[in-house]
Design a protein that fits this description.
The protein has about 350 residues and is of the alpha+beta class. About 65% of the residues lie in helices and about 10% in strands. The protein is built from 15 helices and 4 strands.
């Protein structure tokens, strides 16, 4: 259900201001006196209003020591909370009304604070994260080595690099430098660990460099860019709706760990050019996920702190994508991006 239960605690001296604010964002709220001179307001808020309510509460009461706001998801409400143009509440005079596109996409989107909470656990370097990355790379590597697609998909479902990648896109959209630094550091460490795990696997285990599951990770085609962009947009859409199972299904289609593991395996087995090609595929996927992710966050009305900053980051990612796409076009033009060309190189390097 697209509604939230919001509990707000303020001193009794702030009741008047809070009532005015709630009138802009909620049609149903109840007041309750609690100890220590506090007043508790419980309100039902349509999900599309949660973002602006929390922003206004933070702006008005952030300096009040005893202020607190708690948001919980609702499963059912009677009578139901309708989401129609007739039930739209007028916002504060200084608030820009949402565009029709923002109104449509933000109806069932989580608020920025809820997105932060969902992403926070995955942008910290913890032992469990490092183990998950290493095990995922080993599982993907062994699955590709033996040509077992189901095993590779199992490694992709683990998706340890998904959280930091989503964190990067979210941080770029809202201009959160602290989140961006944590997500970048976590993603960089995970990528290095995945490649190192692949190198060790390639040096220890005998591989057939021509096996399809490995060879397919060394070629980038225009369809791969289109797929990565589509998956990035669909992944952010699922993530911002709290649909974790849908998100896992989307990210199976374009994964980050398998090309990293394949790159490491080829390097460890003595095929550095093929390894670099696999890392090239990883770079294309990562950039596409960020370009499409930022675009989808913006389409859903996620509010940037600075359009100049968000636009600059988006331009940087788009420029990198253009350069990699140009490189791909050149490789196709000279016949270096076909399966046959890869097979000839691998055969000659054995």
């Amino acid at each position: 259900m697209a509604a939230r239960l919001v509990e707000i605690y303020v001193p009794d001296t702030e009741v008047g201001r809070l009532r005015v604010i709630l009138g802009h964002h909620s049609r149903r709220f109840w007041r309750e006196t609690v100890p220590d001179g506090q007043e508790k307001f419980t309100c039902i808020v349509q999900q599309r209003y949660t973002e602006r309510l929390l922003e206004e509460l933070d702006r008005e009461f952030a300096e009040v020591p005893s202020f607190a706001a708690i948001v919980a998801q609702l499963e059912a409400v009677l009578p139901p909370v309708e989401e129609t143009p007739e039930t739209e509440l007028p916002g504060p005079a200084d608030l820009r009304p949402p565009t029709a596109l923002e109104r449509f996409f933000s109806r069932d989107r989580l608020s920025t604070d809820e997105l932060y909470d969902d992403i926070d656990e995955s942008v910290h370097i913890r032992p469990s994260y490092l183990l998950t990355v290493a095990l995922s790379a080993v599982i993907a590597g062994l699955g590709m080595r033996s040509g077992q697609t189901a095993v590779v998909i199992g490694a992709m479902i683990v998706a340890p690099l998904l959280g930091p990648t989503m964190g990067l896109a979210l941080a770029a959209t809202v201009g959160n430098a602290a989140l961006g630094k944590r997500a970048f550091a976590t993603l960089a460490v995970g990528c290095i660990l995945a490649v190192v795990s692949g190198i060790l696997l390639g040096a220890i285990v005998t591989i057939d460099p021509l096996v399809a599951e490995l060879k397919n990770r060394t070629v980038v085609q225009p369809a791969d860019i289109t797929l990565a962009l589509a998956c990035g947009a669909a992944g952010v859409l699922a993530f911002s709706r709290g649909s974790s199972l849908t998100l896992v299904g989307v990210m199976i289609a374009v994964a980050l760990v398998p090309p990293l593991a394949a790159g490491g395996i080829y390097i460890g087995a003595g095929h550095p050019i093929a390894g670099l090609n696999a890392l090239y595929l990883f770079a294309v996927n990562l950039i596409c996920l960020n370009v499409a992710g930022i675009a989808m966050f913006l389409i859903q009305g996620l509010p940037p702190k600075s359009w100049r900053l968000t636009g600059g980051i988006m331009l940087m990612w788009a420029t990198l994508l253009f350069l990699l796409a140009s490189l791909m076009a050149g490789r196709i033009l000279f016949g270096l991006a076909s399966m046959e060309a890869v097979a000839r190189y691998l055969v000659n390097s054995v």
